[in-house]
Amino acid sequence: MREYSRLGHPESGGLPAQMERLGDNLIVDVIIPVYRGLPETRRCIESVLGCRQEAYLEVVVVDDASPEPELADYLNSLAASSSITLLRNQSNLGFVQSVNLGMSLHPKRDVVLLNSDTLVANDWLDRIRRCAYGAAKIGTVTPFSNNATICSYPEFCAENSLPEGIESSELDEMFQRANHGKSVEIPTAVGFCMYIRRACMDQVGLFDAGNFGKGYGEENDFSMRASQQGWLNLLCADTFVYHAGGVSFMSEKDGRVATALEVLHRLHPGYEDLIRRFVAADPVRELRQAVDVELAAYQARKMSTRSKLRVSISKLINIFK
């Protein structure tokens, strides 16, 4: 007996006609595990649905038996309108099992794992997918974010706010201009927004629910296993995805992180040294600095526009005195 129910996009033909004619390998599943946080989840899903891509995608939301009725109702309404495919666990299985369920739904498709407290913008998926197919053995791709450890901007390995007065979509456009087509190898993907090629998953397997249970550390373990089998983990330097952080786990985060590090050390004894060397070398520095330059120029243009507007208003006031 299966432990979940499925609503929206049924097997018998809920996908748009043009998607029904495609092979599964041409569609990307954007998998969003959900537990708490209606406002954040709503913003996340609406940002995905609101972005136009050349890539065909299906939004697969996995409701891990959310305790929030309003959130469940919202997801039901989206499934009823066929905006999303909704998988609902009959009991709380935890983050890792929920993700594995989503990744197993369509066994030929690439996937993007997207936290429910993220915001995407513009043609984000097209850029990440283009990066993923830049070479034969690219297994995972992670974009920049404000809150993504080694993929964080503006401060490296920090939880950042957005620059004052700047929307995440504007910052994403700056990343496009500053780092168009650029990428860098990283030791591990970061799970807030993680593209995985199906060929890599077929060889490496799913996330390790036995060792990582409710969540934290599972994407690092997957990345290490992928590296051991010849796959690369890349940072897609021309894409930015906003990440609020900690909505589902909240006060449990510190304990989960500590436990995950212990498990990673046991499974991959060289993991911590690998991360330490990467942080010390900081090969991402020039990519961040390129965006710093773009951001400074953008802010200068905005200030100039405001100054011109103030002058124009002043002139109008003087005319009508």
What does this structure look like?
This protein has 321 residues and is α/β, with parallel strands linked by helices. The chain has a single domain, classed as Spore Coat Polysaccharide Biosynthesis Protein SpsA, Chain A, CATH 3.90.550.10. 44% of the residues lie in helices and 18% in strands. It contains twelve helices and eleven strands. The chain has a nine-stranded mixed β-sheet, sandwiched between helices. Strand 3, helix 3 and strand 4 form a beta-alpha-beta unit. The chain starts with a strand and ends with a helix. About 2% of the residues have low confidence.
- N-to-C SSE series? EHEHEHEHEEHEHEEHHHEEHHH
CATH class: Alpha Beta
Low-pLDDT parts are 10-14
Helix-strand makeup class: alpha/beta
Beta content: 15-25%
Biggest sheet character: 9 strands, mixed
- Overall helicity: 40-55%
Q: What would the principal axes of the Cα set say about the shape?
A: globular
The average pLDDT is: 90
Report the span from N to C terminus.
80 Å
Q: Order of strands in the sheet with the most strands?
A: 1-4-3-2-5-9-7-10-8
State Rg.
21 Å
Write the layout of secondary structure elements.
Layout: E1 4-7, H1 17-20, E2 27-34, H2 38-50, E3 56-63, H3 69-80, E4 85-89, H4 95-104, E5 110-114, E6 118-119, H5 124-132, E7 138-144, H6 168-178, E8 183-185, E9 193-196, H7 198-204, H8 209-212, H9 218-228, E10 232-240, E11 242-243, H10 253-267, H11 271-281, H12 285-319
Parallel strand pairs: 2-3, 2-5, 3-4, 7-10
Antiparallel strand pairs: 1-4, 5-9, 6-11, 7-9, 8-10
